[in-house]
Amino acid sequence: MAVDFLPVPGTPVEEIDTPAMIVDLDAAEANIRDMQAVVQAGGAALRPHTKTTKSPYWALKQIEAGAIGVCCAKVGEAEVLVDGGVNDILITSEIVGASKIARLAGLARRAKITVVVDDEANARDISDAAQAAGSQVGVLVDVNIRINRCGVEPGEPTTTLAKIVDGLPGVRFDGLNGYEGHIYEIGDARVPETLEALSKLQFAIADVKAAGLSVGTVSSGGTSSYDITCKVPEVTEIQAGSYIFMDGEYVDQKMPFKPALTVMTQVISRPTADRAILDVGLKSIANDYGPPRVMGTEGATFTKLSEEHGALALEGSAQDLKSGDVVHLLPSHAGTTINIHDYYFCVRGGVLEEVVEVAGRGKFR
Amino acid sequence: MAVDFLPVPGTPVEEIDTPAMIVDLDAAEANIRDMQAVVQAGGAALRPHTKTTKSPYWALKQIEAGAIGVCCAKVGEAEVLVDGGVNDILITSEIVGASKIARLAGLARRAKITVVVDDEANARDISDAAQAAGSQVGVLVDVNIRINRCGVEPGEPTTTLAKIVDGLPGVRFDGLNGYEGHIYEIGDARVPETLEALSKLQFAIADVKAAGLSVGTVSSGGTSSYDITCKVPEVTEIQAGSYIFMDGEYVDQKMPFKPALTVMTQVISRPTADRAILDVGLKSIANDYGPPRVMGTEGATFTKLSEEHGALALEGSAQDLKSGDVVHLLPSHAGTTINIHDYYFCVRGGVLEEVVEVAGRGKFR
User: What integer pLDDT is reported at residue A185 of this predicted model?
Assistant: First the structure.
């Protein structure tokens, strides 16, 4: 079987073979601490979303820093987290189908598992599976407060579903989930747009409570809204995830976190004075939020990402770049970039400290 | 360790858990046969590019159908192919750096390995490594004929490098590589644009021959130009790859191959009469060539691909879609979609025949 030739701890970063996903541990750990402090000061708990990181390594660091648990998007990701020692997980996507629901119910024997639900039949399926497994699955009713994706509407539809869930065996009605969706690139509108979405969530909460149910958990918020959402009294936990490494796109929004993840790449061709070709392509850096940008190489501009190649335009001192030289790229979207790598190369002070597997990669079932 | 729960051969396709990458074996095998026949009739050999498929399973099917070997983009992919029983591989990217070159030279002990080179120092590094390994590495000088990426210019620069390579121990000057680049979406200009690029390659060949070298191999062509390029007498082999499954984008260009790969997904939420949410997202289908399209569900239009969700707009009978129903999506770009999956689910007549690992996924070093 083809093996991966991996560098050992202590290797200088520039000697790691490329393309390689490099994490600056000091920056990522500062982001973890800073988000925890802001959310806690705002009065909410932090339950970081791990769809970005896909690894128990980072989840455990976040929990050690004070997070009450984590979120993930898929049953397969939750299985990887539980195997890695995480014991409190919220799955923020509807889980449908006999096979996945059986796995969900089985996993709830090993850890505290909560899932969002927006459909009565789905709630009954989960209830049946949990009873068969002898487990209990926590349920948050998923409320559509802005993004118009999944979720029931606030008010009567939410309350009706909450009452049904509350009456089912094997499941535990824990509260509501309402994600405002990405609220960025809207400048001054960020605060009113977030508050408008949350007012729908507040209405939904009040309506459920008026029906006599208790709403223990209200899960909401992301990296683009955490600072607003964490101060809304009804919100008990914040689901932010991207803050840990920061996307190029978020960096543009001047969010107060440090870019902590780059893809280190190598020049493989210098065909002209003003062009360098890199060993990075769409198979090792994502472009769904746009092309990456060059970090730390003055005069080099990223011009084209194709399937197996990246191209730089070079000016001034960047024209000294030689074949074999390394170039760091900041991905516009960390989540989809991590999704195509098998390893994090975690670096401190320019030296490799740990190689960490992206254990949840590909676990999208 | 979290396991993958995989369906066994004989499972009906609609019972495979989603998201799942489904290959219609009859369609893929017809594509393999059809490309082989056209290229052979045109007078060239076929050396399919496996950057799309990343698996010896498909390479061996192509070789069984008459291909003389395959191409790949990375040393790690070549290692996977050799381990899987493929014994003639052209690496179409420049391979730079001591570690990768040592692996390249080592691999050449086990199989016929050829690599493209556009730089004298790189050629010398490969020569040194091959001598140290006791192997011989084939070299094609990489000529820039259209795409302005890697490669030396035709004429004097190509011939000078060819002569240097020809004089080095441990390497074998085999000929030239000249890729026209993607020539699609240009309608009537496709033939003249291809021929113009190939005229540069013809000039480069003549110039090298005039210097007294023999040019045994001329590698060129892709899925967008194979039918033109295979008839140019100097071209000995065609590197087409995408034809095996066909991208949504190529389908739009009315190429004569069958779409053979879909991502099967499942409805996880039906929040309104005209909206369905699917369990597919950017983590399981690529959008670098644009969003996927719905296959076989009349009245359903793909509207939005986000990180963990896909959204459909529904009209007419599509409004009968229920939570749990499966929907097939044709990716706009198969290569980058395969790159985020671990398995091909190979189906014939609606029944699972084989589960095949994407063994070369992530082997981009």
Answer: 64
Q: Residue B89: beta bridge partners?
A: B70, B113
Residue B96 near residue A266 (C-beta atoms within 8 A): yes
d(CA A89, CA A107): 10
CA distance B322 to A276: 51
Judge: A365–B19 Cβ closer than 8 Å, yes or no: yes
A116 pairs with which residues across the strands? Answer: A140
β-bridge pairing A275-278 and A293-295: unpaired
Q: Indicate if the pLDDT at residue A188 is higher than 70.
A: yes
Ordered by start, the domain boundaries in chain A are 13-22+256-357, 25-244
When pLDDT is cut at 50, 70 and 90, the band that residue B126 belongs to is very high
pLDDT of residue B22: 98
How far does the CA of residue A44 sit from the closest CA of chain B (Å)? 25
Query: Does CATH place domain A13-22+256-357 in 2.60.40.3760?
Result: no
Q: Please name the helix (run of DSSP H) or strand (run of DSSP E) that holds residue A226, with its range, or none.
A: helix A226-229
Q: Say yes or no: B124 contacts chain A, CB-CB below 8 A.
A: no
Q: Which of B52, B83, B268, B341 to mutate to test the interface with A (most CBs of A within 10 A)?
A: B268
Examine the pLDDT at A1 and tell me if it is beyond 60: no
If you ran DSSP here, which 8-state letter would residue A40 be given? H
The pLDDT value given to residue B187 = 76
* % of chain B exceeding 90 in pLDDT: 92
Q: Which CATH number fits domain A25-244: 3.20.20.10, 3.30.720.120, 3.40.50.10610, 3.40.47.10?
A: 3.20.20.10
pLDDT (tens digit, 9 = 90+) per residue, B169-225?
999 999 999 998 777 667 788 899 999 999 999 999 999 999 999 999 999 999 989
- The answer, for A152 touching chain B at a CB cutoff of 8 Å, is yes
CB atoms within 10 A of CB A3: 8
Kindly indicate whether the domain formed by B25-245 is annotated with CATH number 3.20.20.10: yes
Q: Say yes or no for a CB contact (<8 Å) between A268 and B80.
A: no
Contact B308 A51 (CB under 8 A): yes
When pLDDT is cut at 50, 70 and 90, the band that residue A184 belongs to is: low
Residue keyed to tokens 């496996």: B50
Look at B80 and A2 and tell me if their CB atoms are within 8 Å.
Answer: yes
